[in-house]
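Inputs:
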Amino acid sequence: MTFELTILGSNSAKPVFDRHPSAQALQIDNQIYLIDCGEGTQMQLTRYGVRNGKINHIFISHLHGDHYLGLIPLLDSFALNSRTATLHLYAPPDLKRAIDLHYDISNGKLPYELAFHPTQDKQAQLILDSNRLQVYSFPLQHGRLPCTGFLFAEKKLPRRIIAHKIAQYQIPFTQINDIKNGADFTTSDGTIIPHAELTTENRVPYSYAYCSDTAYTETILPHIAGVDLLYHESTYLHDLAQKALERGHSTAQQAAQIALKAGAKRLIIGHYSSKYADLQPFENEARAVFPFTDLAIEGKCFVIGGV
Ligand SMILES: [Zn+2]
Ligand SMILES: [Zn+2]
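Outputs:
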């Protein structure tokens, strides 16, 4: 099981100081979930060796350009690479109009299906439900533009079977999955062996929450409670808290307070304003509140779990 996050873009608004607008790649097993897609994302994917072909799901938090202007070039490159697999896109509904307009005026057509899943910012919603993973969107507070965060939550794992019990009770291979999922086993002489004797608890499922552009809001806490890894924007340092509020953004200190109150295990902060060349003060400010904070640095990979 691989569950790890690569930072592709860490800046707000525009590319400066060799930092790019928002984008992240979450790899879970053999799938890559692309989260936001700012300008230059496909070049960042190449730069950091993230395989385009593993991307089947893209999540866009909101329609400020620094979060989606790299999307249409990426869709085009998939087409140039003769992609045929369906691509799932989860985004505010208006993005569909922008994509359709581009392919209309360029007289182009994608050779693969683009399955568009519109998001909304009224309440939390389950937007993807696969064998291993559930993804929820939830509302952020970013002025008048609808904006959502995303929670990637691995599903509860079946219990682990105790190897020597298989031999001891001569359990047929065909029954092992049922036992892992809660079934008892009946031996040839009719004795019932409860599944609790045959199995042990599995590890706790992994989770990652992405809180894109947002003012400080505790309304998100129930959606991100106890996550293994939390990304929360920190556009400004706290001396500009008033400016952050007016623009629907947060400070490093506020991001750390959210991580603390949510009971997150680790925090990544990013979406730095273009006015800051030096990021060390962000780390210092956040760690004073929540020590387990790291800066979103492009190319850096955060391993959430690997078992
Ligand atoms: Zn932004
Ligand atoms: Zn924004």
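Remarks. The chain has a mean pLDDT of 95. The pocket of zinc ion (ligand 1) is lined by residues 12, 22, 64, 66-67, 213, 271 (CB under 6 Å).
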